[in-house]
Structure formats: structure tokens, C-alpha cells
Design goal:
Low-confidence stretches: 1-11, 17-79
Number of helices: 5
Number of strands: 21
Distance between the termini: 115 Å
CATH superfamily of the largest domain: Exo-inulinase, domain 1
Order of helices and strands: HEEEEEEEEEEEEEEEEEHEHEHEHE
Oligomer: single chain
């Protein structure tokens, strides 16, 4: 009887040991299975920690990257738990940019041939201190000090006359410095000291545009008026009889269907001088014209100065995209259209180099339009260099008018 009891006890003990071993194996296998599952989710790499002992154990399932224990698709926190990647900030597409500049240039100043330290030769002064300078490797107008009701305005033959038509565009680049304070450029729609106006001024911040107290809109994604990032902003203003649109870089920020007053001129000012200086460059005022498609119907071609390039290069500048988008839409809406894209330059520089440059620029435009969906069979390109000027090359406005692209039906 005692032998039987001992045997039963031994069998009971063996069963308990087997059950315990089964439980341990089950836990270990479950942990490994879970780790392997995490490896699959994490791109083949996962790191576990051995709780109480503080000893790290690494499972290396990716033979090609066995030395790397960090997941490419997750950011572990201090406890080794995978975290979701931070989503990148949304990026605006240039396809949303619909600004098309006027085709007849009224005033152009790209600061070329200016003497550093002197007052800008194409401007008149309403108040403040403005001088030519070189900043960020470019010729600029440096606003050293401002006057509350000051600024500069284009030096016209008759500065008191209304030189702005019912349809016009204004463009310029302005620089913003990092600051906690408000940084702003002001555009008044008259020549201060020479003209009078009741029209509301426009105020441009890094991240917002204000039309007096009437309207205020922020650049998409901007938290406030200013930010801590130093940057250039391309400002584009479109006026059509009474409708006013304002663009910052790649976005239309302000769209007012009806504004009061008659714009007669332009004055640019800034009160950022106490915060480190203000800089403007590449100012252009152009007269609005007949829509490009209507011009094509009449003449069998149209001319645009709205497609621009880096100096002496075939790199298309971002502000050209509104014009290119307009033409692409025109060709999409009218599939029968076929265009020869023809580049022209002014007379500055070498004639042979200008010929080659015009060919490269025309081809760059063709390539961009094909990338936007136009069949390459509907386009061809050629360049004419400086051989076919529209007007004299004796003035900046004339040179700017000759630096053009023509779209000719074939």
C-alpha cells in the first residue's frame, strides 16, 4: 500500500512538472510569435527588453541589416514602444497658383547696373532712407530707415499723372527676418507726395495680407502674421477694374471682388528697419491685356512676359507657373491647339549665347507642359535669341518686353 502511494505521488509530481514546462514553453513561444509579428510590421527589425534584469535582448530577423536594431517605420520611445512617424507638414501645389501677370510692362526695376550705396535711380522718395545694396548675393533696394508716411515710388515722366490702367499687376520680392515682432511691407496705390488717394493701403506680413481694416487673410498653414524663419516672399498683386487679388509665393491669399477708390500709382514702404533691415527687389508693374486665348484667336499666336527664368539660365522661376497653368488649361480645353514655343531674349550679353539660351528656355517650357499632361506631338520649341526684338533695348522696360515667350500655332 505504501509503494502504491509513493508511485501515485511521483506520477502527480511528474504531471505538475510537465504542466509547468508546457506553460513556460507556451509563454516563450507566444512572446517569440509576438516579436516575429512586430518584426513583420516594423520592417524586419525589433528590439525587446528583459524587464527585471535590465538586460537588452535583440531579435535580428533582417539578415541584410542584422546590425541595425532600430525600426525604419517607427520611432521607439524610452520604453521601446513603437510610435507613429510624425506626419510632414502639408505642401501647397503650384497648380493652385492662378496669377497671370500683365503683358505690357509699365515699370521694371531688377536693380542691375545700380551703384552700391546710392539712391535707386529709377525711384523717387516720399520719405525714409533707401539705398542700393547687395544682400543674399543679389542686388536689392535696402530700406535703412523708414518714415511713417514715407516710401519710394517709380520715377515716371509725369509723377502726378495716373499711370495705372483699369487692369494691372504688380510684383516684387521682399525679405523677412526671424522676429517675434510684426514685420511688414506696405503698398499704397498712389505716388505719395505727388498724388492723393483715399484708397486703402495693403499690408504684407510673412504669413498674412491685410487690406486696411476691411479684409485680412493668412497664408495657408501660417499660425500668425510672422514666424521665426528668414525667407524671401514673392508678392503678386492683380487689379481688375475694382477686384483685387494678392498672392504670396504659391497661394492666393486675398481675393476682394469690389474695392473702393482708383489706384493711380504705387508706393512701397516698410517699418522693419528697427528690427534688422528690409529688402526688396525685382519690382515690375504691367498693364493687363486681352486674355491670352482671345489674343490667339485674333492673331494666331500670343505673347507672354509672365514666364521667367533665373539670370542666364533655363531654370523656370516658380512665379511663372500661373501663366504655364493657364496655357495648359487652354490646350486641355481646346485639344485642337498645337503650339510652337518660341523663346526670345534682350540684347544684353553675347549674341551666340543668347541664341542658345533662348532655345534652352523654350525647350524647358515644352518639357514642363508635357509633364503637366500635354501630348508632346502638340508642341515643338525653337529660339530666336535677340534677333526679333519687339521694342528698343534702351530701357529696362524695353528689355523686359523683349525677354518674352511666344506661342505660335502650327
Amino acid at each position: 500500500m505504501k509503494k502504491l502511494i509513493v508511485i501515485l505521488a511521483l506520477l502527480n509530481l511528474s504531471a505538475r512538472v510537465a504542466l509547468a514546462q508546457f506553460s513556460v514553453n507556451k509563454i516563450v513561444n507566444y512572446s517569440l510569435d509576438k516579436a516575429e509579428s512586430e518584426i513583420v510590421k516594423g520592417g524586419g527589425k525589433h528590439t525587446t527588453q528583459a524587464g527585471e534584469t535590465g538586460t537588452d535582448k535583440t531579435l535580428k530577423a533582417d539578415a541584410g541589416n542584422s546590425g541595425n536594431t532600430k525600426s525604419e517605420n517607427s520611432n521607439p520611445d524610452n520604453n521601446g514602444a513603437p510610435q507613429e512617424q510624425e506626419k510632414p507638414a502639408p505642401v501647397l501645389e503650384w497648380a493652385k497658383y492662378d496669377f497671370v501677370p500683365g503683358t505690357e510692362i509699365i515699370f521694371e526695376d531688377n536693380q542691375l547696373d545700380e551703384q552700391n550705396g546710392e539712391f535707386p535711380s529709377k525711384w523717387d522718395l516720399a520719405g525714409g532712407v533707401y539705398e542700393n545694396a547687395v544682400f543674399d548675393s543679389a542686388n536689392v533696394i535696402y530700406i535703412r530707415d523708414h518714415a511713417i508716411d514715407g516710401g519710394i515710388f517709380p520715377l515716371m515722366k509725369d509723377p502726378s499723372a495716373d499711370y495705372l490702367p483699369e487692369q494691372f499687376t504688380v510684383e516684387f520680392d521682399c525679405y523677412f527676418i526671424p522676429s517675434f515682432n510684426s514685420q511688414r511691407y506696405m503698398v499704397s496705390f498712389y505716388a505719395k507726395r505727388k498724388q492723393s488717394s483715399i484708397m486703402t493701403p495693403l499690408t504684407i506680413y510673412t504669413g498674412a495680407v491685410k487690406y486696411g481694416t476691411i479684409a485680412e487673410e493668412k497664408y495657408p498653414g501660417a499660425d500668425g502674421y510672422t514666424d521665426k524663419q528668414a525667407r524671401w516672399r514673392h508678392v503678386a498683386i492683380s487689379f481688375n477694374i475694382r477686384a483685387l487679388k494678392v498672392y504670396l509665393d504659391d497661394a492666393r491669399v486675398l481675393n476682394l471682388p469690389n474695392v473702393d477708390g482708383n489706384p493711380t500709382g504705387i508706393t512701397i514702404n516698410s517699418d522693419m528697419t528697427k528690427q534688422g533691415g528690409a529688402y526688396v527687389k525685382n519690382i515690375r508693374i504691367a498693364k493687363g491685356a486681352v486674355p491670352l486665348y482671345d489674343k490667339f484667336i485674333t492673331d494666331g499666336k500670343f505673347v507672354t512676359t509672365g514666364i521667367r527664368f533665373d539670370v542666364n539660365k533655363a531654370t523656370i522661376r516658380p512665379e511663372s507657373t500661373g501663366t504655364i497653368n493657364y496655357i495648359v488649361k487652354m490646350m486641355t480645353d481646346h485639344p485642337e491647339l498645337r503650339f510652337s514655343v518660341e523663346g526670345h531674349t534682350d540684347s544684353d550679353g553675347n549674341e551666340v549665347a543668347n541664341q542658345k539660351l533662348s532655345e534652352m528656355r523654350a525647350k524647358a517650357i515644352l518639357d514642363q507642359m508635357v509633364a503637366l499632361g500635354i501630348d508632346t506631338k502638340r508642341l515643338k520649341s525653337k529660339g530666336f535669341g535677340e534677333s526679333k526684338p519687339l521694342t528698343t533695348n534702351d530701357t529696362p522696360e524695353g528689355k523686359a518686353q523683349n525677354r518674352r515667350v511666344e506661342f505660335v500655332e502650327f
